[in-house]
Amino acid sequence: MKNVITEKSNRKSCDIDLMDTKNILKVINDEDQKVAKAVKKALPEIEKAVDMIVEGFLEGGRLAYFGAGTSGRIGVLDASECWPTFSVAGDMVLGFIAGGDYALRNSIEGAEDKIDGAMLDIENMNPTKNDVVVGVSASGNPKYVLKVLEEAKKRGAKTVGVTSNDKAKLREFCDVLIVTKVGPEVISGSSRMKSGTAQKMVLNMLSTASMIKIGKTYGNFMIDLQSCCDKLVERGNNIIASILKIDVAKADNYRIKANNNIKAACVMYKKQCSYDEAIKLLKQHNGILRKVI
Length: 293
Prior knowledge:
The protein is α/β, with parallel strands linked by helices. The chain has helices at residues 21-41, 43-58, 69-86, 115-125, 143-154, 194-213, 230-244, 248-257, 262-271, 275-284, 289-292; strands spanning 63-67, 93-97, 132-136, 158-163, 176-179. The protein has a five-stranded parallel sheet with strand order 2-1-3-4-5, sandwiched between helices. Strand 3, helix 5 and strand 4 (158-163) form a beta-alpha-beta unit. Helix 4 runs parallel beside helix 5 (143-154) and helix 7 (230-244) packs parallel to helix 9. The chain is globular and about 65 Å long. It starts with 20 loop residues before the first helix and ends with a helix.
């Protein structure tokens, strides 16, 4: 483990147990400042990964995250938010964690080294040439992640690695390797901290930028959101009102007529057409609202 940067001792926190609360928090916060800078340095690789994901999406492909522990949980979190935010099919963005769903709330010792678990998850996903498989790991060395990437690559899928270790073994199996060099953790080996934060930022970029590029936003509005609760109904109405420059009451009326479809509501108002005609126009332009209105 001597080559794994996240396992090394951070000299700035070596006496953290002797500090008062204020200085403990200052050390943590000072170290957190390094995360965004590390991610910024990795932007060229993140860009390559996004373009690869978009290319796959446009061919009906999927994006899948695989990780163990914190990394797995972050992947599942990002994947699970794509449906309500962008209204994509439930299997378009997937998250897998070593040890299965039980591991989301419980630590399963040794799950990160279970090759049979990796094979089970990759079989369940069944990656194809249009899919992008992302292995997420602070060290980049767990057998679970390595096996997943190796198998995905064998099956023709594109592969991406997200790690904080530039000597990660997963490099061998990645078409694109994203390394966020955040340095040693405040608590040695606690990669839920800076490494986990960096992973969260990178996965947010991968999914969000990809969704933007396939037309899931209009400006910075999430125009494909699911109006499945009062908050999202209100947000949807405000989005329609803002895009069309109409009052919220009228926006609500068009949202209802459009069966909660924000894009269709905008087209119906702009083109003064029926819901079916609006859907047809959107399909003709691959669902990209800006091309229709």
